[in-house]
Structures are given as structure tokens and as C-alpha cells.
Amino acid sequence: MLSENSRHRGPRSNVRNTFQKRPTTYLFMEKHIDELQSKLEKLQGENQFKTEWLSRISHDLKETFGSILWITQAVEDQTLTKEEFFKLLPRIKVDAKKNLQTLEDTSEWLKIRNPEFKVASSKIVAEELFKDLENTFKEELIAKNIQLQFEGDKNMIFISDYSLVFLLLKKLVHNAIKFSQLNSTIVFTVKKESGKTLLSVADEGIGMSEKHLDTCFSFQNAVFRGTQGEIGVGFGLKIARDIVYLLQGKIELVSHENVGTSILIFLP
């Protein structure tokens, strides 16, 4: 049979134990709430990004098809002469190329955002990567008399997903050519730095201001024409950023107006 002291000690002990357990419980709940909040913010960000992406596509396609419909109707009604029609063809061609690029970018983006998409691994040789970029952009480089140069170790080998790495670099080189001046140079670098694989694309183009640097990976950033009037939809850097995340890497952008832009990719 419990003594009087024992009976009094029991409840106090239980209360004390309960209070001792509470901090651990609170810490667990706090951590769980933080995780849920982080997931919620990520989902909200993704939904906003998708909404803005679809809005941009809708706007561009509506504008292009509206123009085509107006032109064809004008031709049918004979309110547009053949001379006027042929003068409008270059503009139609530009709009068509822009929208084709939009659809290609969207297809690539949807592919890498698919939850079932798997990142592959293979040996990538720096020199082969450089040659593939040279061949892909041969016409664009010749058109603006731009030299694509390699810096680093051409024999260097690193492990990553070749398709993703090449798609990533295509976006970066395409942007570099678009905003480069005639008769300039673009430098593609591959090297090891602090145990990471560093890939960088540096141009001597028009560069960006601090204001635009802060928004270059979002839809808040303005869409600029290239140095020869090239137009785009501004999806390239957004796709590049998502690819870098998939590869568990890091992307950095350094730019100065009228000096040029360097984009650095660090891969594990």
C-alpha cells in the first residue's frame, strides 16, 4: 500500500514528466509546420510560374494568329494588294519563328518538370560538348561573325546527364549570340573548381542592369530584342535554372551593361 508521501509524489512526478516532454513535442510540431509551410510556398510559386507561363504563351499565340487571320481575310476581301501582302511576309515569318520557339521551349520545360522524369548519368568529354555546340550554332555564329572559343581542359571528363547539360548550354549560348555585338567573341569554359565542375558561357554583349539581374529568372523581367533585332519570349534562362536544379547544381549570373554577361554553372 502506498504511503501518504508516495501518493502525493506520484501526481507531481507525472506533471513534471509531462512538462519535460512538451518541449520535444513542440519542437517536432514546429519542424513539421515549417516543412508544410515550405512545401506550400513551393507549390504556390510553381502554380504562379505555370500561370505566368501559360499567360505568356496565350498572349503570343493570340497575337500571331490574330495577325494571320486579319491578313487572310484582307486577301479574300481584296482589301490588301499583293504588294502589301508580300511586304507583310517578313513580319509573319518572324512571328512564326518566335511562336515555334515558344512551343519548343514549352515542350522541353514540360518534359523536365514531369514527376516521372529521371536524370541519367554518363561520361561527358569537354571537347565533344564544345564541338556539338559549334555545329549547332554554326549558322548563327557566321551570321554575326562571332567566334566561339574554348577555355579549359578539352580532355576533361565529368559525369552528368548529357541531354540535360547540352540543352542547358544551348539556352545559354543562344542567349549569348542573341545579345552579342557583331564581330565579337563568346567564351565557353569547362574546368574543375573547388571539387565542382564549372561550365560557363561569357559574351561581350549588351549586358544587363542590376534591376534586370534581380528578375532575369522570373516573368517580371522584360523581353529584350537582340543586337540585330532578334526577338524571343524570355523562357531560356527559366528553363536553364530548372535544369540546373534537376542536376543538383548552382547557377550564377554576372552582367554589366555594355560590357557583357557571364553565366556560371556549378555541377556536383
Number of domains: 2
Oligomer type:
single chain
Q: Alpha-carbon distance between the termini?
A: 68 Å
CATH architect. name of the largest domain: 2-Layer Sandwich
Please, what is the average pLDDT? 78
Strand content: 15-25%
Reported for the largest beta sheet, the result is: 5 strands, mixed
Write down the secondary-structure element order.
HHEHHEEHEEHHEE
Q: Spatial order of the strands in the main sheet?
A: 2-4-5-7-6
Q: Which CATH class of the largest domain?
A: Alpha Beta
The residue fraction in helices comes out at 55-70%
Q: CATH superfamily assignment of the largest domain?
A: Histidine kinase-like ATPase, C-terminal domain
Q: How many strands?
A: 7
Number of contiguous helices: 7
Describe the structure.
This protein is of the alpha+beta class and 268 residues long. It folds into two domains: 1-116, no CATH class; 122-267, Histidine kinase-like ATPase, C-terminal domain (Heat Shock Protein 90, 2-Layer Sandwich). The chain is built from seven helices and seven strands; from the N terminus they run H-H-E-H-H-E-E-H-E-E-H-H-E-E. It has helices at 4-76, 82-113, 126-136, 138-143, 162-178, 210-213, 236-246; strands spanning 122-125, 147-152, 157-160, 185-193, 196-202, 250-256, 260-267. The strands form two sheets. It has a five-stranded mixed beta sheet, with helices on one face. Strands 1-3 form a two-stranded antiparallel sheet. Helix 3 crosses helix 5 and helix 5 (162-178) packs antiparallel against helix 7. It is globular.
